[in-house]
Design brief:
Helix content is about 50%, strand content about 10%. With about 425 residues, it is of the alpha+beta class. The strands form 4 sheets. The chain has a 5-stranded mixed beta sheet, sandwiched between helices. The protein has a 3-stranded antiparallel beta sheet with strand order 4-12-9. A two-stranded antiparallel sheet has the order 6-7. A hairpin with a 2-residue loop joins β1 and β2 (about 20-25). The protein binds protoporphyrin IX containing FE.
Length: about 425
């Protein structure tokens, strides 16, 4: 990360760079980002070593897929992520947040501290698994599945931190990783079989994907395709949300005035009631806090593309086959486009103060046809989690030391964020 920011500092908004022996062109100008994500997106497909590795591990689901197959997949999956369908997941999200907080009661009764990062990870994983399968979280198969995702994520992060020994070499950690993938495979196929056998529309994402039909051919997805999509949703939709929520709690802990305004908004809009999906548009400041958190700590902090044909970006020639890298972490802190970019200030996103919905190069969910399909899902989940947690708790950090970001699969925190739980003032 420091290496990339030094390069940008020294050479400007477009620079060639060698990363792990591979040449990349790093872009850091909003126009160039629009070029690859929107205007010339057809020329910039998924490609490069990251996606090759991801496909080998997780299959060819929507996140990993390249054209032309990607377009069919996107069309099949899009309806399942329509705003109206996502609204049906509100109860499930709130129930999961509630039960996570119930488990915190015991922690706080023991006077113990809470590791925010792992709690947010546990919470978002349970939400996405329940949404995917509509199964009871206490069910043995769901528990086995959830534990396997947690193990695979942990071991993959450990590998990415020190990628010295290839994953194919059977070290104990690599064995745990491959073992977890095998469990995920088995359980996913078993759940697909159960869904197919009973034929009922369980309202799960899996059922929606299963019933989707190609508009041209009338064909649905095979079991292997469904399995890949389940893996893609887990891969793309769990750690990203957990990482954003962790940074939200970190930033709130360091900015008491922001916390006060959040609480005032939540009290005023909800008056102590449990939030529902229809009130989320009224939680305007909560949304701004999330937007500003994703500006400073965008979970999908880097996006790779590969040029299909010769092109030109910012006056430089881009031969076919060039790997292009865009790093939203740096773009979102560009001094030219953000006033005092290192400062946490949710009011930047206040339209009344002259901001806009989409400042130049601000794309935490990506842009163009490959815009995150789960963005509405993620935003609802995060607003609900922040509102419900603040209604019941204060998360008081036990240390005021700065936490640096750790750029792995997502932009995590380099060390745990540990808090003490306290009741909110006045309760
Ligand atoms: C804060 C949470 C999230 C962030 C910041 C985020 C960010 C992103 C970004 C930046 C992309 C575009 C990548 C690119 O252009 O190469 C993307 C794609 C994607 N996201 Fe998300 N995501 C989040 C949550 C979710 C959730 C909850 C799901 C699913 C339940 C999800 C599923 C996907 C999928 C399947 C894609 C691939 C879309 C395609 O290529 O057509 N994401 N996400």
């Amino acid at each position: 990360m420091t290496f990339l920011s030094e390069l940008i500092e020294e050479y400007g908004d477009i620079v060639s760079v060698d990363l792990v022996g591979m040449p990349f062109v790093l872009i850091n100008h909003p126009d160039d980002v629009d070029h690859i994500l929107k205007r010339h997106q057809r020329n910039y497909d998924r490609g490069g070593p990251t996606y090759t590795m991801a496909r080998a591990m997780f299959g060819n689901g929507l996140f990993m897929a390249a054209r032309p197959g990607w377009l069919r997949q996107r069309r099949l999956l899009q309806p399942a992520f329509h705003r109206s369908r996502i609204a049906t997941f509100g109860e499930l999200m709130s129930d999961t947040i509630d039960s996570t907080m119930d488990s915190w009661q015991q922690v706080s009764a023991r006077g113990a501290n809470l590791d925010v990062r792992s709690e947010m990870s546990r919470l978002t994983l349970r939400v996405v698994v329940r949404a995917l399968f509509a199964m009871d979280p206490a069910d043995a198969m769901t528990r086995r599945f959830t534990e396997a995702v947690a193990t695979a994520t942990r071991e993959l992060s450990a590998y990415l931190r020190f990628p010295l020994v290839p994953l194919a070499v059977p070290t104990p950690g690599h064995r745990r990783f491959h073992g977890a993938l095998q469990v995920l495979d088995e359980v996913t196929y078993e759940i697909i079989r159960q869904h197919r056998d009973d034929g009922a529309d369980r309202g799960s994402l899996l059922a929606m994907m299963m019933h989707a039909r190609d508009a041209d051919t009338g064909e649905g997805m095979t079991d292997a395709e469904l399995r890949d999509e389940v893996f893609a949703m887990l891969f793309a939709g769990h750690e990203t949300t957990a990482s954003t929520l962790t940074w939200v709690w970190y930033l709130i802990g360091r900015h008491p005035a922001v916390e006060q305004r959040l609480r005032a908004e939540i009290d005023q809009v909800l008056g102590g009631r449990r939030p529902t999906m229809d009130v989320l548009p009224q939680l305007v400041y909560t949304r701004r806090v999330i937007d500003e958190t994703m500006r400073l700590y965008p979970p999908a902090w880097q996006i790779f593309r590969k040029a299909a044909e010769d092109d030109e970006i910012g006056g430089y020639s881009i031969p076919a086959g060039t790997n292009v890298l865009w790093c939203s972490y740096h773009m979102h802190r560009h001094r030219k486009y953000w006033n005092d970019p290192e400062r946490f200030d949710p009011d930047r996103f206040d339209e009344r103060e002259g901001g806009s919905d989409n400042p130049p190069g601000y794309y935490p969910f990506g842009a163009g046809p490959r815009l995150c399909i789960g963005n509405t899902f993620a935003m609802a989940e995060m607003q609900l989690a922040i509102a419900m947690i603040l209604q019941r708790h204060r998360l008081v950090p036990i240390s005021d030391k700065t936490i640096e970001p750790s750029p792995l699969l997502t932009l995590g925190a380099a060390r745990p964020l540990v808090v003490r739980l306290q009741p909110p003032a006045g309760s």
